[in-house]
Design the sequence.
């Protein structure tokens, strides 16, 4: 096996291993000889005792330890061990001196199998590597700048988060642009049919609907889907929602908007009401769900965490729990 390019430390280590192995083999050989000689002397002693008429004791007395205690072997430094090994084995040592032929073949076969397992790495070109590095860098930036949920400590075993730098700055800006008194004005002027916070007064019960989740379950509150479902609900006086089990429920909750007026006038009025309602919600603690996030309610599968939540339930709780202060 090739030993080129090895550091002095590796060379010293191999020399030390060989010296220790040779010393151990020599010690083992001498110990075997001593044991053989000792057995021979014991047999002669027993035979002599029997000849003079005494029987040897069945057990020998145990050796007594000295008052100073057990034997302590002082530890030696690496330099001392290497120096002793150089005296025993002054020449350089290769792996061929340390390993048998079968051991060397086993190592080479293992290296070959590892090389085959890593063969896919040779298929990557510079574009693949650039894509992988870019994805990691973008993910890191998103984590630093954007990640905000879950903000509730202990959710799925995670720690609480104070929010990313960017969303916190956006929150501050929105609160400056829409102070509380302005929000109250917008709430009174732009009431929407898709805004029930509980099941009270509804013809059909919506599972999971509550003050903390109604914006998540109401498609009208989605920043993108709302411009279709929200506007349609305002025009027809309906409420379109997704319950916690992924079922879409549409029901009548009020009168249609400007019934009998021109269609274009109704559309413009519905858009005005919808935009005003979203503005009244965006600066509140609950805010609005992320665009298209309510669609995760259809993913009724998965076993996440100790309670084996589905993907839909995890998404719903992430929105609901971020309202709880840290």
Sequence:
């Amino acid at each position: 096996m090739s030993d080129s390019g090895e550091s002095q430390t590796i060379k010293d280590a191999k020399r030390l291993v060989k010296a220790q192995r040779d010393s151990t083999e020599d010690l083992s050989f001498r110990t075997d000889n001593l044991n053989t000689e000792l057995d021979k002397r014991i047999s002669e002693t027993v035979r002599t005792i029997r000849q003079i008429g005494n029987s040897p004791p069945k057990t020998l007395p145990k050796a007594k330890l000295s008052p100073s205690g057990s034997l302590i072997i002082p530890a030696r430094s690496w330099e001392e061990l290497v120096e002793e090994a150089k005296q025993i084995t002054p020449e350089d040592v290769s792996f061929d001196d340390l390993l048998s032929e079968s051991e060397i073949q086993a190592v080479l076969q293992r290296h070959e199998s590892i090389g085959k397992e890593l063969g896919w790495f040779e298929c990557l070109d510079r574009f693949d590597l650039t894509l992988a590095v870019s994805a990691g860098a973008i993910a890191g930036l998103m984590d630093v700048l954007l990640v905000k949920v879950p903000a509730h400590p202990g959710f799925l075993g995670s720690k609480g988060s104070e929010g990313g730098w960017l969303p916190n700055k956006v929150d501050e800006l929105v609160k400056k642009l829409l102070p509380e008194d302005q929000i109250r004005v917008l709430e009174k002027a732009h009431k929407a049919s898709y805004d029930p916070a509980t099941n009270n007064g509804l013809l059909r019960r919506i599972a999971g609907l509550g003050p903390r989740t109604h914006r998540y379950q109401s498609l009208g509150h989605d920043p993108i889907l709302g411009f279709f479902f929200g506007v349609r609900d305002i025009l027809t006086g309906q409420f379109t929602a997704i319950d916690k089990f992924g079922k879409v429920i549409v029901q009548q909750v009020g009168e249609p908007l400007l019934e009998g007026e021109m269609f274009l006038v109704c559309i413009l009025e519905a858009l005005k009401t919808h935009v005003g309602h979203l503005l009244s919600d965006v600066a509140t603690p609950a805010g609005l769900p992320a665009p298209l996030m309510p669609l995760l309610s259809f993913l009724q599968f998965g076993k996440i965490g100790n309670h084996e939540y589905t993907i839909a339930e995890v998404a719903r709780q992430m929105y609901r729990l971020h309202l709880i202060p840290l």
Observations:
- The radius of gyration is 41 Å.
